[in-house]
Each structure stands twice: as structure tokens, then as C-alpha cells.
Amino acid sequence: SQQFLTSVFVAGSDVCMLPPQVGNCVDGERPHYRKRWYYDPERETCFAFLYSGCTAGSNRNNFVSYDECRDFCEDIECKSARRLFGEGCWVICFATVISF
């Protein structure tokens, strides 16, 4: 008997896996540093960092508040299927397997 995985539903986002980026100011932009939050997948929580306000060299793992970061990256739930397994931002919620 052989089994083949035919479909997988994954909840989460690779945004949560990105490293924090301060952002690079270019073309005369001046930094306006402000507190932002990023998700650390190894420690499985959100941490504050200083963001320059400049978008060059930044990424989307950049949240205005701790709650926004936590809600996006930590509180992933399977809405329509039971959770099979997963940690951090990636959660396998549903998988279809056929056997021969």
C-alpha cells in the first residue's frame, strides 16, 4: 500500500519568518525613528525594534503594535478544519491523503 499527499491547507504567512529591517533612507529621505514590532519565529513571540520610517530595505514583518504582530503571527487558528500540526507561523490545518 502506498500513500500520496494530494492537498494541504496551510494557515499563516512567510511574513512572520522575515528578519526585522530598520529600513534605508534614500534620495534625501530623513529617518523618523519609531517603535515597531516584529515576530521572531525562533522565540515564537513579538519584539520591539526601531524602524526608520523609510521603506527601502524594509519588509512586512513590521507591525504598529504588539497586538497586531501577535494577532497576525502568533494566533493562527484553523477556521474550517482541525489543526494537524505546526509551530510558529506555519500551521498545517488540513491534508488529504489517498492510498493505493
UniProtKB/TrEMBL annotation:
Molecular function terms, GO-annotated: serine-type endopeptidase inhibitor activity
Alphabetized UniProt keyword annotations: Collagen, Protease inhibitor, Serine protease inhibitor
Boundaries of every BPTI/Kunitz inhibitor domain copy: 16-73
Classification via Pfam families: Kunitz_BPTI
Keyword Ribosomal protein appears in the UniProt entry: no
Cellular component annotations (GO), alphabetically ordered: collagen trimer
UniProt protein name: Collagen alpha-3(VI) chain
